[in-house]
Specification:
With 473 residues, the protein is α/β, with parallel strands linked by helices. The chain has 15 helices and 11 strands. Helix content is 38%, strand content 13%. The two termini are 17 Å apart. The structure holds glutamine.
Length: 473
């Protein structure tokens, strides 16, 4: 992205030529990363960007081709959440983040594949079929923002937006060897993001390195009164210089390295931590005692919120209506039975159960209390350190179709990513090595609330020292 922007300024490359070549790569790609491509719109916006650059405009995103996850609304362009239920939905408005990107002159290429309604970790629950990992086409790119991650890794765009409710930006970033940020809750407006679990959802930028991610992040964050959780706060641009790591305290909880962690992930992550130490950081052991309950709490809270958010897809206000109904109730039932896939139905049932009278106290309220304890663990940890480091995912990318019949094992893979969503804190995945089979490994950096720039800056310094982010599939 930044290298493209530089080449535009040197007149070594023009936005129409670059966008044209990216579109050609998308056409030739077999990854199934995109569910819709707006070729005409992209070429029109590339031409407009070219003339703005000629007039001397500085914005780094001018003419930069960006891919947008298909649960983020784009005016006049299908937004399906990879669900049969929304396959005919064309939003009449742009999401706040898309408006901001367009205002910066970025070129929105199209929409990327995801797990249906962003529920999943493989992109395999998409009604458009799975996306493949560009490092090995027999493997999953992760999910749910698997289309965005695969597109960035394969050079089908310069950067992308994903959404992260329990890890959906960071986990596919880790599996595809790219950098992805889950921002502090409330820094990026969710207006126009199709709601999954509203108290956890956050849109995040994905790119080939931390500087690209920082540029995208600066473009999309900021207060928006249309999202009631958006924080009224002024932000100044993130420094692209990298952070001086001397004296920076990095907390490493030993529970991040349990028996079951894959050896290749442990090796790469521990190596990355030694690089930080070499760069002057002080490694401090910390404890996060309640983290082990994170997955259990998340898989109550997220389905509970999802069951409520997805009630609107009834075939009346939204959704492809089933037409051979006898009465209204039957129409609701048939529309939802036919429209939603198995994983989405599983979440709606789990969530409805957890919220129902008599069970609410035992499940939803308990999970909310655990959430508070986890947030407290982080608050105490950040008294002793400036950021926390560990793995993003306990494994590297696995085979397409593996574990499809075993949702519980897939849920457990979210163990490292979920806590940041529960606590609302920022977290970033950075490439830090490769496993035995050559698949990328991600290092996760977690920061205190509004520590997004600190973890991005630390990642820049790490990437100035390492080359993992430069290796391409
Ligand atoms: N894998 C998690 C889930 O299935 C996270 C999804 C997400 O962040 N959108 O819920």
């Amino acid at each position: 992205m930044l290298d493209t922007a530089r080449r535009y300024r040197k007149e070594d490359l023009s936005p129409p030529a670059h966008v044209e070549s990216v579109l050609a790569r998308i056409r030739a790609s077999e990854l199934n990363a995109f569910v819709a491509v707006d070729e005409q719109g992209a070429l029109r916006d590339a031409a407009a960007a070219a003339s703005r650059i000629e007039r001397g405009q500085e914005d780094l995103l001018l003419g930069i081709p960006i891919a947008v996850k298909d649960n983020i609304c784009t005016k006049g362009l299908h937004t399906t959440c990879a669900s049969n239920l929304l396959k005919n939905f064309v939003p009449p408005y742009d999401a706040h983040v898309v408006e901001l990107l367009r205002n910066c002159g970025a070129v929105v290429l199209g929409k990327t594949n995801l797990d249906e309604f962003a529920m999943g970790s493989t992109t395999a629950t998409s009604s458009f079929g799975p996306t493949k990992n560009p490092w090995d086409m027999t493997k999953t790119p992760g999910g749910s923002s698997g289309g965005s991650a695969a597109a960035v890794a394969a050079g089908l765009c310069d950067g992308a937006l994903g959404s992260d409710t329990g890890g959906s930006v960071r986990q596919p970033a880790s599996f595809c060897g790219i950098t992805g940020l889950k921002p502090t809750y409330g820094t990026v407006s969710r207006y126009g993001l199709v709601a999954f679990a509203s108290s956890l959802d956050q849109i995040g930028p994905m790119g080939r390195n931390a500087r690209d991610v920082a540029v995208l992040f600066d473009a999309i964050r900021g207060h928006d009164p249309r999202d009631s959780t958006s924080i009224p706060r002024q932000y100044s641009p993130t420094s692209l210089d990298g952070l001086d790591l001397h004296g920076l305290r990095i907390g490493v909880p030993e529970i991040f390295f349990p028996q079951g962690l894959s050896r290749e992930v442990e090796r790469a992550v521990r190596f990355a931590i030694t690089v930080f130490a070499d760069l002057g950081a002080i490694i401090v052991p910390i404890e996060l005692p309640h983290l082990r309950y994170g997955v259990a709490a998340y898989y109550i809270i997220a389905p509970a919120e999802a069951s409520s958010n997805l009630a609107r897809y009834d075939g009346v206000r939204f959704g492809v209506r089933d037409s051979d109904e006898e009465d209204l109730f039957e129409m609701y039932c048939k529309t939802r039975s036919k429209g939603f896939g198995d994983e989405v139905k599983r979440r709606i049932m789990l969530g409805t159960y957890a919220l129902s009278a008599g069970y609410y106290e035992a499940y939803y309220r308990k999970a909310s209390q655990v959430r508070t304890l986890i947030a407290g663990d982080f608050r105490r940890a950040f008294d002793r350190c400036d950021m926390i480091a560990g793995p993003t995912v306990p494994v590297t990318a696995f085979g397409l179709g593996d574990m499809v019949d075993d949702p519980l094992s897939i849920y457990l893979l979210d163990i490292y990513t979920i806590p940041a969503n529960l606590a609302g804190i920022p977290a970033l995945s950075v490439p830090c090595g490769f496993g035995d089979n050559g698949m990328p490994v991600g290092l996760q950096l977690l920061g205190p609330p509004f520590g997004d720039e600190t973890i991005l800056g630390a990642a820049m310094t790490f990437q100035d020292r390492t080359r993992f982010h430069e290796v391409r599939p």
